């Protein structure tokens, strides 16, 4: 088994475990607390400690052997999922989510940095696009399967299924071999400076993930209001369109250039979010998911290659990327849950496209002033 294959399977197992709860967990929490604010708070809370402790977590995992660091992250995520079974109140759920966030942070800091250290050059968007299907392939089956298990067997059985995917990841970790492409170290000063040097990227990322996280978390509740019982298959359609575009669009990405791909992705995302808002049937709901998948393929496949292009400081860049991602994933569900509590979930989906539009406008306005990435190494 090659390193790339082992990385892929290890990441796949974690994402499959998470996606198994993508639609089921919001429904479970909404059934317990009966309000969107608590749903958003609990699901977004995983990012709190991973953001506050990002520097010590980064220094710790980058100072460990790769296999040891990945297994530790898996153990913490496994422990947190077991905690969900015994959680009934807000405090217990929040504690389990905090633990999950620390494990997820450490695991993907190492995994993403290791992958990016082994792919570079003009083919980087295509290769990263292949690798990043680990974030998409489980959507083909996991959300719909998770909702089905929840309805037929209950939440405890659902969590047991999720633990099995963590075991798959752990097995794959043992096949990862040492390479010369291990992290070059982590410097706190460079980490903090990057937010200013690469701010167009990070503002865009924050606003897109703010919208993305809100869409994913509250889609089950929006669908329930519309009476769309089989809504979870929207994630299947989203995954199919994303994968198809990544498989067949390598030349399109190269010809359009990274910035134009980002713009095309945002336009498609905005269109699809409005589609979710105004859909009244499965056909429109699922078609919106298809366009969302196309938009995400254009955006996400080109974002990280654009971010790390020309820089030798991958450890700090990936750490800052995941920090901004996590802050947005906390703020999005939290604030959107509060908004939906006052104005309704349908109106939330009418507002979220504005975040995508603001992000791309800011990016295009300020990215030309960005300090060259290679200077971040000095």
Overview of this protein structure:
- The protein has 378 residues and is mainly α.
- 79% of the residues lie in helices and 0% in strands.
- It has helices spanning 3-20, 24-33, 36-44, 47-52, 54-62, 66-85, 90-116, 124-131, 142-153, 155-173, 188-197, 199-226, 233-248, 250-256, 258-278, 282-308, 314-343, 345-351, 353-366.
Under CATH, the homologous superfamily reads MFS general substrate transporter like domains
- CATH class, named Mainly Alpha
**Quaternary structure classification:** single chain
The CATH topology, please?
A: Growth Hormone, Chain: A
Distance separating the two termini = 37 Å
SSE order in H/E notation? Answer: HHHHHHHHHHHHHHHHHHH
Number of domains: 1
Task: Give me the Rg, rounded.
Answer: 19 Å
CATH architecture annotation name: Up-down Bundle
The residue-averaged pLDDT reads 85
User: Can you count the helices?
Assistant: 19
Range of helix content: over 70%
Low-confidence stretches: 370-378
Q: What's the story with the biggest beta sheet?
A: none
Strand percentage lies at under 5%
Condensed summary:
By secondary structure, the chain is an all-alpha fold.
Topology diagram in text:
Layout (H helix, E strand, L loop, with lengths): L2 H18 L3 H10 L2 H9 L2 H6 L1 H9 L3 H20 L4 H27 L7 H8 L10 H12 L1 H19 L14 H10 L1 H28 L6 H16 L1 H7 L1 H21 L3 H27 L5 H30 L1 H7 L1 H14 L12
